[in-house]
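> forwarded from #structure-qc
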């Protein structure tokens, strides 16, 4: 059984000092209360990666991830970062296709499919983020959108190892809004994703599916106990060690 992933996406928040301090406070606050079946993943902005990796050195159960990368080893790609540069800073995970990359930066499914393949081939564990907008939900398109994003995201990588490929279901309308999807909505979406994975991926029953969108200390225990929820991807409530430590141990 692969471990549940309790992930903190710090987005474009925190200076180096603040990020390292929060990482240290988190390790102290969690102490020896990290359940054996969970791992913690910190995903700070690029500028803070190296400092946080030094802070986490020697800590069992803590991992570092990048929020994004460009699918080339190096080259004239101003403003981009490569998987090799992420691993050089201590990352073993990376997000692909976060809703803010899709909707604010305009990243498209075919580009994301290339990143999934390239990232996996570069020794990164890839977390592919999928999720519907509120308009799509109102139009009854949840299944079509989620399975479409999943199929297109995996189009280049083909069969993947469960250990290295993770899905994060993040309904766009629940991100940063304080509006969490209800347990039934989450369970339904995760069951749907699992029912696609099992026939389409050899290791589909073991691929972890995280939930993200207004996860807080007071709703985490309910969410994490649902079938087919294999962890959480937390934004706002992960910025402070006090609240994220409660989520990690919920
Ligand atoms: P919030 O937890 O702030 O809703 O953000 C969720 C998210 O986007 C994590 O990647």
């Amino acid at each position: 059984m692969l471990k549940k992933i309790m992930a903190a996406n710090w987005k474009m928040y925190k200076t180096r000092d603040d990020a390292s301090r929060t990482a240290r406070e988190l390790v102290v606050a969690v102490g020896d209360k990290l359940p054996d079946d969970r791992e913690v993943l910190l995903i700070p902005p690029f500028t803070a990666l190296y400092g946080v990796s030094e802070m986490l050195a020697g800590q069992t159960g803590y991992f570092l991830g990048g929020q994004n990368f460009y699918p080339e080893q190096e080259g004239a790609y101003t403003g981009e970062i490569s998987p090799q540069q992420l691993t050089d800073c201590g990352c073993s995970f990376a997000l692909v296709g976060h809703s803010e990359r899709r909707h604010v930066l305009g990243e498209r499914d075919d580009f994301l499919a290339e990143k999934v393949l390239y990232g996996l081939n570069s020794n990164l564990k890839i977390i592919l983020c999928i999720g519907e907008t509120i308009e799509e939900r109102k139009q009854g398109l949840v299944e079509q959108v989620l399975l479409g994003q999943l199929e297109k995201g995996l189009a280049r990588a083909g069969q993947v190892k469960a250990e290295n490929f993770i899905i994060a279901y993040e309904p766009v309308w629940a991100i940063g809004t304080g509006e969490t999807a209800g347990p039934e909505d989450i369970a339904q979406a995760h069951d749907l994703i699992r029912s696609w994975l099992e026939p389409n991926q050899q290791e589909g029953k073991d691929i972890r599916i995280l939930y993200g969108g207004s996860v807080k200390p007071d709703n985490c225990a309910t969410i994490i106990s649902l079938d087919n929820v294999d962890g959480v991807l937390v934004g706002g409530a992960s910025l402070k060690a006090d609240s994220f430590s409660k989520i990690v141990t919920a």
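QC bot note: The chain has one domain: 4-248. Residues 4-248 form a domain with the TIM Barrel fold (CATH 3.20.20.70).
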